[in-house]
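re: ur question from the group chat, yeah i did fold both. here u go
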Amino acid sequence: MPSSQDSSRYGVDEVHPQNYFERMGSATLLSSIASTPTVVKTLMQLGFEPCAPKPYTNILGQTGFIRPGLFSYTNILVKTHGYGILFTGLPCRIVETILYDSVSSRVKRGLDQILHRRAATAIDDDDDDESAVQNIVSEIFSKSVSMCIASLVCQPFKVVGTRMIAQIAGKEMKYAGMIQGLSLIYNEDGLRGLFRGLVPTCVGEVVFATSIVILSDIVGKYITPHLMGYTKETADANGKAVSNMITHHLAVTCAQPLFYPFHVVRAVMIVNGSGLSVAQPSFESFVDCFRHLASLPSHRGLMRGSSMLRRFTTKE
C-alpha cells in the first residue's frame, strides 16, 4: 500500500492505451521522487536506528534526546551504503503503484455502478440527512472493498520491496531483486510468504477509507468553507479543486493517528519470519505484534516513523 493510497490517485476513468503509458510514467516519476522518504520511513517503522539518540537543549533550557530526522538519516545511509541505497526496491514500488491504481479504480467504478451511484467521491451538501448517510456508507463500502482488493493483488510486490529495504539494517543481500525475491520467498514459505502482512494492510485500508470519508464530509461542510470564504455552490471549478485538495489533506492529517499504526504493524509483519536481522522479535500473529508495539512508548511503537523531521525520544 503506497503511503495514504487513494483509489482516485490519478483520476483515470476510461481505459485507453495512452492512459496506461501515462500511468506508467506517473508511477515511475512519483515513486522515484518518493523513494528516499519511503526507504527511510520503512526502516524507521521497522525500528532500525543507525545511531544512538543525541542529547539536545531547547530554547527554554529543557533537555532531552533526539534521533536523526529524514535528512540526517539519509546522510548516514549514503555514507555507509552509497546513493544507490536510496532507490532500494524501486521497481517493486513502481509495479505496486501501477497495479494498485488500475485495480482499485476499476473495482470502485464497478461497485459504484452496482450501487447506482456516480463515481465521484464528493458528497453533495444539499442531500437530506438520510440520503447523505446512505452516500457516506456507500462511499466507505466501495472505497474499502476496492482498496482491499488492490492491496491483495499488490501484496507480493509490497513484501519483496519491504524486505529489500529491511535487509539494509543488517547489511544483508538475501533479496537481490524483484523477480529473485518473489521466487525466493515462494520457495521458502509458499504463497503464505508472499502475502505476509496482508491482514493488517486490509484492516488499515478499511480504517483509512472510513476515517477519510467521514472526516472529508465533516471538513468539507464545516471547516473548508470558512477557510476558503465560499461554499461549493458559489465556488468556480478552480475553487472547487482547491477546496477538495485542502479538504483531503486536512482529513488525512486528522485521520493519521487512526490508520498509521497499521502501517507500522504491516511493515513488521512483512519481515516477520524472513530470517533477516531486523525481524526480531518474532510474532505469531498481527494481533500479538500490535499488542507488543502498543506496550512501547508511541515514538518506539505504533507511531514510530510518523514524524520524520524532528524525532524526539527518551534515552534507552
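okk and heres the other one u asked abt
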Amino acid sequence: MAAGGAEDPSLERHFRGHRDAITSVDFSLNKKQLASGSMDSCLKIWSMKPQMRAYCLVGHKDAVMCVQFSPSGHLVASGSRDKTVCLWVPSVKGESTVFKAHTATVRSVHFSSDGQSLVTASDDKTIKVWTVHRQKFLFSLSQHINWVRCARFSPDGRLIASASDDKTVKLWDKTSRECIHSFCEHGGFANHVEFHPSGTCIAAAGTDKTVKVWDVRMNRLLQHYQVHTAAVNSLSFHPSGNYLITASNDSTLKILDLLEGRLLYTLHGHQGPATCVAFSRTGDFFASGGSDEQVMVWKTNFSAADYDGVLKTHKSGATVDGTHHRLPSEMDCGVHLKKTKSQDTGRNHERQEEDVHLADTLEHIIGQLDVLTQTVSILEQRLTLTENKLKEFLENQQKIIQNKEN
C-alpha cells in the first residue's frame, strides 16, 4: 500500500477466517495476540507473528457479541447471544469456564483494571458484576428500560458507565450500587461507552451518528462530534488520552483530535459497516472489524510525542485508504475549514490569516451554541415533564379533598 507521510496511520495486515460479521476486537497486553468475536459463533485468537495460525475457540452456541483480554493477558472473556459468558485460556487447547450470566444476549464484557472483577451487559436490561476467579455473581444494576449495549469500569474501578437502547448513558457507583447520573443527550440508541484513561471523562457512540464526551465530575457535555454519515458502533481512546477512534456503519474509521476538538483522519478499509475498533494497550496499533468478515490491524504512527507535527500536517483531516491521500475540509460538527490562496503581498497574507482565524473562532462559537441549544432543549423537556407531574399531583390532591368532603 502507499503510505503517505511517516506519521500517517497505515494498514499493517488483515486477517480472514471468520464466516460472518466481526463484532469485537481486543489486543493482549504484550500485543502478541489479537482476539476477535464474530456472528459465526467463533472466537479467534490471532498471532501477530507472521505465518502463525489462529486459534479458533469453539464453545458458544450462538453469535459471539464481545471479547476482551484480562489485564494480564492470561484470560479472554467472551459474551454471546446464547446468554452465557466464557472465560478462556488463549492457547491451542482453549480451555474455558462457561457460566449462564443473563436471561438474554450478552452484549458486553469488561475486566476491572486489577483483573479481579468482570462487568457484563445484556438485552435483559441489566448490568451484572462478577468475581473473575470463582465466577461468583456479586450484584446487578437494573435501571435501564431497554437493552444495555455496553458497560465499562472506570480506571480506578469505583464507577461503571453503561450505554443502552433507552437512549441514555448511565453512571453508577460500584460501592453503593446506585445510578448517580443519567446522560440523556443522545437522539438515538447509545451503542458504546468508554472511560477516558484519566477516568475524568466518558465518550459514547450512538445511532444518531454522533460521538459525545462528558465530564463525569461535573456531569456536563464537553464535546459533540458529528463526523460520520451513519450510526457509530464503537470507539476507543488512545492511551495518551489525546485521541479517540470511532467505527461506523458508513464503513469508515475516524480519528478525532480531542485537544483541538477536530477530525484528524478518515480511514477507509472495510467494505460495508465498520463494527468495532480498539487501540492496543500502548497505543502504537489499533484493530478494526467489519461486516465484511475481516479483521484489520493498523499501525498508529502518531503519538503524544509527535502530536504537533501531525496537527500541522493535517489541519483539516487526512484520508487514508491504502491507495491514495486527500485532504477533505472536515472539522468537528461538520463545519468546513475555509482554505485561502497565498497572496503576493505580505499585508494581504496577514489579513487573510486574520480572516481565517476569525472564521475558525466563529465556527467554534457556532459549535458551542449548538451544544448549548441542545442542553437548553433537554432542560425544557425535563421542566415540562416536572410541570406535568406537578399538575397531575395537584389534581389528585384535589380529588382526594373532594372525596373526603363528600
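fwiw on the second one: The first helix runs from residue 307 to 313. The two ends are 86 Å apart (CA to CA). idk if thats what u expected
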